[in-house]
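Repro:
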Amino acid sequence: MSETHESIGSHLRRERELRKIPLEEVAEQTRVKLEYLQAIESEHFEKLPGMTFARGYLKAYASYIGLLPEDVLLRFEDFLGKLSGGSAPRAERSHTKLLIGLLALLVLFGAGTILVLWWLKK
Protein backbone atom coordinates (compact mmCIF):
# COMPACT_ATOMS: atom_id res chain seq x y z
CA MET A 1 0.00 0.00 0.00
CA SER A 2 1.43 3.39 -0.95
CA GLU A 3 1.92 6.25 1.45
CA THR A 4 -0.17 9.34 0.87
CA HIS A 5 2.84 11.69 1.09
CA GLU A 6 4.78 9.86 -1.61
CA SER A 7 5.25 11.99 -4.72
CA ILE A 8 3.51 11.08 -7.98
CA GLY A 9 6.75 10.29 -9.82
CA SER A 10 8.13 8.16 -6.98
CA HIS A 11 4.83 6.33 -6.68
CA LEU A 12 4.75 5.43 -10.38
CA ARG A 13 8.42 4.41 -10.44
CA ARG A 14 8.00 2.24 -7.32
CA GLU A 15 4.86 0.54 -8.68
CA ARG A 16 6.53 -0.08 -12.04
CA GLU A 17 9.65 -1.50 -10.43
CA LEU A 18 7.58 -3.74 -8.13
CA ARG A 19 6.05 -5.24 -11.29
CA LYS A 20 9.51 -5.55 -12.87
CA ILE A 21 8.46 -3.57 -15.95
CA PRO A 22 11.28 -1.68 -17.67
CA LEU A 23 10.49 1.94 -18.48
CA GLU A 24 11.45 1.22 -22.10
CA GLU A 25 8.65 -1.35 -22.26
CA VAL A 26 6.14 1.19 -20.94
CA ALA A 27 7.30 3.66 -23.60
CA GLU A 28 7.01 1.08 -26.37
CA GLN A 29 3.60 -0.25 -25.33
CA THR A 30 2.00 3.11 -24.53
CA ARG A 31 3.67 4.96 -27.42
CA VAL A 32 4.75 7.67 -24.99
CA LYS A 33 8.32 8.88 -25.58
CA LEU A 34 10.82 7.47 -23.10
CA GLU A 35 12.05 10.99 -22.29
CA TYR A 36 8.50 12.00 -21.30
CA LEU A 37 8.15 8.99 -19.01
CA GLN A 38 11.51 9.82 -17.44
CA ALA A 39 10.31 13.40 -16.93
CA ILE A 40 7.14 12.11 -15.24
CA GLU A 41 9.06 9.84 -12.88
CA SER A 42 11.45 12.66 -11.98
CA GLU A 43 8.55 15.15 -11.79
CA HIS A 44 9.91 17.47 -14.45
CA PHE A 45 6.49 18.13 -15.93
CA GLU A 46 7.80 21.28 -17.60
CA LYS A 47 9.58 18.96 -20.08
CA LEU A 48 6.20 17.69 -21.32
CA PRO A 49 4.28 19.40 -24.14
CA GLY A 50 1.51 20.51 -21.75
CA MET A 51 -0.65 19.48 -18.82
CA THR A 52 -3.30 17.95 -21.07
CA PHE A 53 -0.62 15.69 -22.53
CA ALA A 54 0.73 14.99 -19.04
CA ARG A 55 -2.69 13.72 -17.93
CA GLY A 56 -2.94 11.51 -21.01
CA TYR A 57 0.54 10.11 -20.47
CA LEU A 58 -0.21 9.47 -16.80
CA LYS A 59 -3.41 7.60 -17.72
CA ALA A 60 -1.59 5.44 -20.26
CA TYR A 61 1.32 4.77 -17.90
CA ALA A 62 -0.93 3.89 -14.97
CA SER A 63 -3.16 1.67 -17.04
CA TYR A 64 -0.24 -0.22 -18.57
CA ILE A 65 1.39 -1.02 -15.23
CA GLY A 66 -1.93 -2.05 -13.67
CA LEU A 67 -2.91 0.99 -11.61
CA LEU A 68 -6.25 2.74 -11.73
CA PRO A 69 -5.78 5.80 -13.97
CA GLU A 70 -8.37 7.75 -11.95
CA ASP A 71 -6.35 7.30 -8.75
CA VAL A 72 -3.15 8.42 -10.46
CA LEU A 73 -4.89 11.48 -11.93
CA LEU A 74 -6.28 12.43 -8.50
CA ARG A 75 -2.79 12.13 -7.05
CA PHE A 76 -1.53 14.34 -9.92
CA GLU A 77 -4.23 16.96 -9.29
CA ASP A 78 -3.21 16.97 -5.62
CA PHE A 79 0.40 17.47 -6.70
CA LEU A 80 -0.58 20.41 -8.93
CA GLY A 81 -2.69 21.91 -6.15
CA LYS A 82 0.26 21.80 -3.76
CA LEU A 83 2.53 23.38 -6.39
CA SER A 84 0.15 26.27 -6.96
CA GLY A 85 -0.52 26.68 -3.25
CA GLY A 86 -4.23 26.16 -3.86
CA SER A 87 -6.37 24.91 -1.03
CA ALA A 88 -8.64 22.74 -3.15
CA PRO A 89 -7.53 20.34 -5.86
CA ARG A 90 -8.39 21.41 -9.37
CA ALA A 91 -10.84 18.56 -9.92
CA GLU A 92 -12.80 19.59 -6.83
CA ARG A 93 -13.01 23.21 -8.03
CA SER A 94 -14.27 22.10 -11.45
CA HIS A 95 -17.00 20.00 -9.79
CA THR A 96 -18.11 23.04 -7.83
CA LYS A 97 -18.28 25.12 -11.01
CA LEU A 98 -20.31 22.37 -12.69
CA LEU A 99 -22.79 22.26 -9.81
CA ILE A 100 -23.19 26.05 -9.83
CA GLY A 101 -23.75 25.97 -13.59
CA LEU A 102 -26.37 23.24 -13.28
CA LEU A 103 -28.14 25.12 -10.51
CA ALA A 104 -28.22 28.30 -12.62
CA LEU A 105 -29.61 26.33 -15.56
CA LEU A 106 -32.30 24.81 -13.34
CA VAL A 107 -33.32 28.25 -12.05
CA LEU A 108 -33.51 29.62 -15.61
CA PHE A 109 -35.55 26.63 -16.75
CA GLY A 110 -37.94 27.05 -13.82
CA ALA A 111 -38.36 30.76 -14.50
CA GLY A 112 -38.98 30.07 -18.18
CA THR A 113 -41.58 27.44 -17.36
CA ILE A 114 -43.40 29.82 -15.01
CA LEU A 115 -43.42 32.55 -17.69
CA VAL A 116 -44.79 30.17 -20.33
CA LEU A 117 -47.53 28.90 -17.99
CA TRP A 118 -48.44 32.47 -17.00
CA TRP A 119 -48.59 33.53 -20.66
CA LEU A 120 -50.76 30.49 -21.62
CA LYS A 121 -53.31 31.32 -18.88
CA LYS A 122 -53.93 34.79 -20.32
